[in-house]
Write a structure and sequence with these properties.
The structure is a homodimer.
Chain A lengths: L1 E2 L2 E2 L8 H5 L2 E9 L2 E2 L2 H14 L7 H11 L6 E9 L13 E8 L7 H4 L2 E5 L19 H6 L9 E5 L5 E4 L3 E6 L2 E5 L9 H12 L4 E4 L3 H5 L3 E6 L3 E8 L2 E2 L5 H10 L7
Parallel strand pairs in A: 7-8, 7-14, 11-12
Antiparallel strand pairs in A: 1-2, 3-4, 3-5, 5-6, 8-9, 10-11, 10-13, 13-14, 14-15
């Protein structure tokens, strides 16, 4: 293999992640040498891998990979990627064995107002293709997210993506929650979209604290009648949404504020 | 970055091909040190790249990469991959610049009967998601093809894939042509699927030789009434199809045979 004219070598060259996006990944927050929600992240990695007929690698090996990145007090964004092992057979997946990739990247530098005053979102013009077999999985085929992330105005932080049948689905890098008729609702991800670890955690937290949370089909028209909206992911916890296109929301609204407090995420609790 | 526990380094680590499948590729046949249909392949690479807002790299550099693989008389499968250059900004594509990957892999060892007696195909259970913005492009998000390539019986060589609305679209690694009511038809790829270089070449060849070829919407029911069927790609040229599920076709049929002769592909002409 040659990369930009230079010979590159290694076992990784045939990786199906590079050639087909045949793998899954997770992005986790690392603060002071500690991976936040580590067990939940690994559990989610395992269930996503299984959904692509992949086995989680030996847990000791994966743990050793991660520990090797966590020098005393390191902070950053941990990316764990599992790719189906190459068997030289073209598209046909002939093994459940994975190769492991881990990487620690610098922490993003988000202004504090994104938590205290909320973020601004637009509506994505790109509609997500409907593929129930891949929906919800955090796999490596992410061109739709790439295309949806182009050309945002400077004051926009996220886009709300609908699927080809008009269902509100998720942000480009977050899951979405709305308060509609005093009920917390997050989109059903059985048709398109990515189900983040933080989404699961929020659904569970809401139910545990008696708020109740429904997973359902949400139309743009229902979003128009929402009283609160927020976005979630592993890195930021909860970002209240103050605007989607021309729609405005209190940010954070009362229920969002209660969840931010109870979530106790290192960044969104304050 | 660590790969299976070992530190790996290089400019390529952040490649968006690995992390998002943000790139395009081509597969070309190399025989005796010559890339078959080289100009057509590069032209197609350029138009696919442009469809993802990517620029083709400096042609001299790309040519030098390819030449470096073509040792005196080398034969094999050339894989050219272009990935958007990393800019450390997450999904957002902030550049049209590409990194270049080239690789020469061994020739596949297909039995001659696949040309002389045709191949057997099944119907894929997986329906292709509809995404007009990506349809036709030979990009690196290929999980649908991976899933469709699982679990074939030993005597099956391809699957016919329909999109979510039931339109016959393409094979997992080939384009499809049918003779329906004496007219050659190939599916419109504006909704899903990959438009191969050989498909373009065949459409042009048919039109030049007075056969006429339509690009249109094809239902499974119309396939049932086809008198001939064949699959195309850069490596094999034309493979007559003798069976799709329980449907049988003459292989090669008379029109297929004429096109195989006129195509003059190193493998499918004989």
């Amino acid at each position: 293999m040659r990369f930009n004219g230079r010979v590159v070598e290694g076992e990784w060259i045939g990786t199906r992640a590079l050639h087909y996006g045949d793998g899954v990944f997770r992005t986790a927050l690392v603060l002071d040498g500690r991976v936040i929600d580590r067990e939940l992240q690994i559990a989610k990695l395992a269930s996503d891998a299984d959904a692509l007929d992949l086995d989680l690698p030996d847990p000791d090996a994966l743990n050793a990979d991660i520990e090797a990145l966590l020098d005393a007090g390191a902070s950053g964004v941990l990316r764990i990627l599992l790719s189906r092992r190459d068997s030289g057979r073209g598209y046909a997946p002939t093994t459940r064995l994975c190769d492991r990739w881990v990487q620690l990247k610098p922490l993003p530098d988000h202004p504090r107002e994104r938590w205290s005053q909320g973020i601004a979102a637009g509506w994505s013009k790109l509609l997500l293709g409907i593929q129930p077999r891949l929906a919800g999985i955090k796999h490596l085929n992410r061109l739709e997210q790439v295309l949806a992330s182009r050309g945002w105005p400077d004051d926009q932080h996220e886009v709300v993506m609908c699927d080809a049948e008009g269902r509100v689905t998720c942000g480009s890098r977050s899951n979405l929650f709305f308060v509609i008729d005093r009920i917390l609702v997050t989109p059903d991800l059985g048709f398109a979209g990515v189900a983040g670890m933080m989404r699961d955690k929020l659904v569970r937290l809401a139910r545990e604290t008696g708020i109740g949370c429904e997973i359902g089909l949400i139309s743009p028209d229902e979003v128009r009648h929402a009283s609160e909206a927020f976005a979630t992911n592993s890195l930021v916890g909860i970002w209240p949404i103050r605007r989607i296109g021309s729609l405005e929301f209190p940010a954070p609204g009362p229920l969002t504020q209660a969840l931010m407090r109870d979530l106790n995420h290192p960044w969104s609790g304050c």
